[in-house]
């Protein structure tokens, strides 16, 4: 029977199959999914044994729509209010007052660094930017038209092969989880290396595609200044990236540094939960980010704007969106139900960049699209507003980056967020638990092997391998 006066901070659940009642503690507005395992029931008449009913109730959550997988102190998002905070600091304050590397320290270690702490941090990160010269061969081994994300993803895994001292498979599985000074030192060194070399690897992926020789990371430039130098330096004396573009890229990096448990951060944690080395975990995150539902939207915005062509075509395009024939890329978000707070900052950066580069010819179309969509009932009713990708692609294009390099410009700064989440998990109270979700098995029940000449062919779409036409 359900208690007459249910205890506060408890969820009381009654299993109507058995009448069993359990009180489940609510902590931080969440309940442990394992609490439901005690709700066991005899298998109902005709029920499949694979349901494992007598072993306890499972929680189904396809796509992690309402499952919290970790306690985190890093990033907070209120999607209804359009709020994004890193370690408690509003993104707007960080974007105007901080830098990407300072914010990286904040995200990973939890506080804003003092001047001397920052100096050590910046020196270490930039010092670790140099790659072994063998890496040139690695990048040159890709096909001439290899996608830069294929190169970057592989490069992170490749990078790990240089550091056997950072590999728990070789050094012992507690390498990163002990939390003592020695273990923290090994962990932090990999953090310097991964953030320091992310720009170098990305720049190498860029240069190999352009047919340019590689350059050594320069000294005396900022993190993003060094990145721009490594991509664009063509032998000029005293070459320095344009300060407005360097600053713009730095703010864009800061805005992209973390966004709590998105698909790629979750992938890094899932992969890291097996205690694999951080290079493999970051490579996995990079692969996840590459997908068009995640890191590819800024590129999709540009392709969409090119297809619209000019402002006069906007109404026709919006009609097609409303008929569900098209999607308005750069609008809508799983979490934000109002404008993405980063989109306002990116819009301002766009103006600063265009003053240097000249206006992108697609800007007028983008502005008309934004204006029309924001007052259209279809978008208002569904709470669809611009996300960070709506304007960022225009900036990258104006700065001269090729379209397929856009996801790289997202992945490089996101290495910071991935590492912040990875480090937090390695050091979390109670140690690391391998992430092993459950499934609901709906396949065949137990059946016996059938000899080949007694089999009846099962045929139909998806049931047999697809035929391949060979060209000879
Ligand atoms: C981001 C995104 C995947 C979120 O999806 P989601 O949270 O699952 O939202 P839903 O797909 O449930 O959308 C709710 C409604 O809005 C519509 N909608 C959502 N985003 C839309 C968009 N960009 N253009 C047109 N319609 C959109 C859906 O068709 C749906 O309409 P319905 O209620 O008539 O079926 C989605 O908004 C999207 O595809 N946006 C464009 C891609 C993009 O910019 N991604 C970058 C995100 S940072």
Automatic annotation (TrEMBL):
<protein>
    <recommendedName>
        <fullName>Citrate synthase</fullName>
    </recommendedName>
</protein>
<dbReference type="GO" id="GO:0046912">
    <property type="term" value="F:acyltransferase activity, acyl groups converted into alkyl on transfer"/>
</dbReference>
<dbReference type="InterPro" id="IPR024176">
    <property type="entry name" value="Citrate_synthase_bac-typ"/>
</dbReference>
<dbReference type="InterPro" id="IPR019810">
    <property type="entry name" value="Citrate_synthase_AS"/>
</dbReference>
<dbReference type="InterPro" id="IPR016142">
    <property type="entry name" value="Citrate_synth-like_lrg_a-sub"/>
</dbReference>
<feature type="active site">
    <location>
        <position position="389"/>
    </location>
</feature>
<keyword id="KW-0816">Tricarboxylic acid cycle</keyword>
<dbReference type="GO" id="GO:0032787">
    <property type="term" value="P:monocarboxylic acid metabolic process"/>
</dbReference>
<comment type="similarity">
    <text>Belongs to the citrate synthase family.</text>
</comment>
<dbReference type="InterPro" id="IPR016143">
    <property type="entry name" value="Citrate_synth-like_sm_a-sub"/>
</dbReference>
<dbReference type="InterPro" id="IPR036969">
    <property type="entry name" value="Citrate_synthase_sf"/>
</dbReference>
<dbReference type="GO" id="GO:0006099">
    <property type="term" value="P:tricarboxylic acid cycle"/>
</dbReference>
<keyword id="KW-0808">Transferase</keyword>
<comment type="pathway">
    <text>Carbohydrate metabolism.</text>
</comment>
<feature type="active site">
    <location>
        <position position="333"/>
    </location>
</feature>
<dbReference type="Pfam" id="PF00285">
    <property type="entry name" value="Citrate_synt"/>
</dbReference>
<dbReference type="InterPro" id="IPR002020">
    <property type="entry name" value="Citrate_synthase"/>
</dbReference>
